[in-house]
Amino acid sequence: MLVTCRIAVVGVAVFAASGIAAPVPAERVKAEKELAAFATKLHGTWEGNRGCQGRLILQADGTYEWKFRGPGGDTDTGVWEMRGDTQSPTLSLKCKTSDDPERKGKTVDVKVVRMTEVSLAFKSPESAPLEFTRAMKSPKP
Q1: Which of these, 24, 83, 100, 110, is most buried using a 10 Å CB contact count?
Q2: Is 0.85 topped by the overall pTM?
Q3: What pLDDT sits at residue 3?
């Protein structure tokens, strides 16, 4: 019995060390693709619907810029990603630079509570939902 357990442990260690990954379940692959498609819909510029919400720009390369934020009109920049699944998506914003030193280096996870082609709303546990409208591109002359 002891010998069998050691062989099994050694076999697992060799398998793990070989770099061979276990197959990813089909459901997980599907969920990851759906979340990536959801994230793609967020790309673009979003204008806050109320004062102090500012303009949130989510880039396809995973960076963001949040301008005119708060009463001081601060600007934050950083990286963003989607987590969870499309039924309960979480937008994660990791602030790299900010006019407000309290936000620099912090990560904020917010629940996306509504997402359409033209509107976005997300909520953190300690705040009311923030609502945004997609900024329309100006027609080229």
Answers
A1: 110
A2: no
A3: 42
Sequential DSSP letters for the chain? -HHHHHHHHHHHHHHHHTTPPPPPPHHHHHHHHHHHHHHHHH-EEEEESSTT--EEEE-TTSEEEEEEETTTTEEEEEEEEEES-TTS-EEEEEEEEESSTTTTT-EEEEEEEEE-SSEEEEE-TTSPPEEEEEPPPPPP-
Assess whether pLDDT exceeds 60 at residue 60: yes
Which structural domain, as residue segments, surrounds residue 56? 31-134
Q: Is residue 83 one of the residues assigned to a domain?
A: yes
Does residue 4 lie in a domain region? no
Domain assignment present for residue 42? The answer is yes
Residue 12 lies in a domain: no
Which of 83, 110, 105, 82 is closest to 94 using CA atoms?
A: 105
